[in-house]
């Protein structure tokens, strides 16, 4: 089911409006661009679409042009804002490679580079108060995001250093949780009939989890051919999961583990988690992880704890699929 990206759509219209105003009214144009930048960024966690990434980048370029206009010198303001925008979206665009913990230097480097170009622009080509004020929110956000990425990496890796509670060869603990339609499903109900791929997600707020779920959706035919049923498990209530299934166009189910008891049993639950960009749950937060359980109830694959986000690439499971009867 395709959903209209309302805020991003408004942001895109704002960008077009700003470009039309730029030759005559640079200040209102800059206001439109700044609004477009944050409107489109706000929805990235929900849809992570090419339309959103493009709108964020176009808004950054347009805002820079409003400050560099008329462009009679090297567009330093535009460069600073482009670097800040890239620092904010590249991890999400290339999440399969970046994951949650890889290349954690990228965001801080981009933030510092954007800040340096921003200062240089104001010193070399002063645009008055506008040059100091308008780029500051975007660059400030990038600095905060950089801190969040580093904090997230440290918390995830510190927690997973000892591995998960459930390892390959162990019997998978049973559970019974409601799916997005409120119907209870248990692991034991599949025993003897189908293999299960359990995918723990951090919630509807998590852009990486959205990308992962869409990636697994693309591989549904492969999983079905090997008699594997995909079950995502997250901390959100049934209604939120129903919206997520519709929004992402999923053919598999998302189970509601609101108290995170199942995540705790599998050892993929961080009870103390501190990140300003994450949804706040009273119990803490699940970790992104996956477990392949064969139809006899034995765990045959566990995503690597030392590389949180490996499960974003379902191809890592394919060699194991060939061994399942």
What does this structure look like?
The protein has 325 residues and is α/β, with parallel strands linked by helices. It has two domains: 155 residues, no CATH class; 146 residues, Glutaredoxin (3-Layer(aba) Sandwich), CATH 3.40.30.10. It has 13 helices and nine strands. The strands form three sheets. Strands 5-4-3-8-9 form a five-stranded mixed sheet. Helix 1 runs antiparallel to helix 2, helix 2 runs antiparallel to helix 3 and helix 4 runs antiparallel to helix 6. It is elongated.
Please summarize what this structure is:
This protein is of the alpha/beta class and 325 residues long. It has 13 helices and nine strands.
Helices and strands in order, then pairings?
Elements lengths: L5 H16 L4 H22 L2 H19 L7 H18 L1 H4 L7 H19 L4 H5 L2 H25 L15 E3 L5 E3 L8 E6 L6 H12 L1 H6 L2 E7 L3 H11 L4 E4 L4 H6 L2 E2 L14 E2 L2 E5 L5 E4 L15 H4 L4
Helix pairs in contact: 1-2, 1-3, 2-3, 3-4, 4-6, 4-8, 6-8
Q: Main attributes?
A:
two-stranded antiparallel ribbon, alpha/beta, 2 domains, 325 residues, Glutaredoxin, 13 helices, 5-stranded mixed β-sheet
How do the helices and strands follow one another from N- to C-terminus?
Answer: HHHHHHHHEEEHHEHEHEEEEH
The neighbouring-strand order within the major sheet is 5-4-3-8-9
Beta-strand fraction estimate? 5-15%
What's the domain count? 2
SS field, number of helical segments: 13
How far from one another are the termini? 34 Å
Number of strands: 9
Radius of gyration: 22 Å
Based on Cα principal axes, name the global outline.
Answer: elongated
Residue ranges: pLDDT <50 for 5 or more in a row?
A: none
Largest sheet data: 5 strands, mixed
